């Protein structure tokens, strides 16, 4: 199939991603993660991530071209994440993309990371219709978007006002003595646990919150509640029921995420929901989302996990969409913007 060949570069967090697409066909998706280097700190260390990107960039570019079976001369355009994300990490990708563009004379498209997550869906065999609601949940972001048009009209409905959902998983895992990243660990620990064993608080779900924060999220209170609960049990000399705590915590996160996402579908009369971000790997997120989608008549889309977590292919795919919609390339004067709005 046709379409422009676009090479996408993603370095907003700890994944160095280089992907190549032809139109909406995936040709390569190479990801190098510095996750292991952050593990002993219990979270992503920006300086460590930036250095790792610098080291991983050239090998990732070479590997992506090899995987796609093409030479750099066959690439029509370059796309890069210019934000939001960690400033120093973004700068490595932006710098590499500009260098490539200048050296080859190819057009360069600066794109938004969150919109890129939505763009991943065009790589699916049958992609979603618009408008759609999109829920993006990772260690760095928790955002609810109303996507009327991928390249022209994306509205941020809400986002976390404190911790990202993945961050909450990572912090609670630490409280339970489980290693980083905590999401998969909590998922495993929750097997056999009772999700109703402990009623942990749901952030921004009270009637009084709904006016100002209808689609916003808050997970720091939940994290603190879990820490207090474990501390109290510890002090009382009780054995910590890890499976029950993990299952109850996970249920609280999933409940809030999905209640707000499906509420947006209902409010806007949009029966389509796209999920993205690393937390989408969560077994309970997937199960509960499928249940609610069936009950509410919503078409649920979850890209394969390699396209849900941060990657370069989604950035390339969004770049190709921009080109096909007739957008002009970015002026090379753009910088990295850690708080870039959608
Ligand atoms: O999208 P991602 O790979 O990277 C960024 O954060 O940018 O997401 C990683 C996050 C981590 O916080 C990790 O704990 C979480 O996603 N995660 C999960 C699961 N797998 C990964 N959270 C809940 N359940 C999981 N199974
Ligand atoms: Zn992301």
UniProtKB/TrEMBL annotation:
One term of GO molecular function: tRNA N(6)-L-threonylcarbamoyladenine synthase activity
Subcellular location field: Cytoplasm
Major localisation: cytoplasm
Annotated Gene Ontology cellular component terms: cytoplasm
Function: Required for the formation of a threonylcarbamoyl group on adenosine at position 37 (t(6)A37) in tRNAs that read codons beginning with adenine. Is involved in the transfer of the threonylcarbamoyl moiety of threonylcarbamoyl-AMP (TC-AMP) to the N6 group of A37, together with TsaE and TsaB. TsaD likely plays a direct catalytic role in this reaction.
Cofactor binding, per record: Binds 1 Fe(2+) ion per subunit.
Record-given protein name: tRNA N6-adenosine threonylcarbamoyltransferase
Membrane-traversing stretches: none
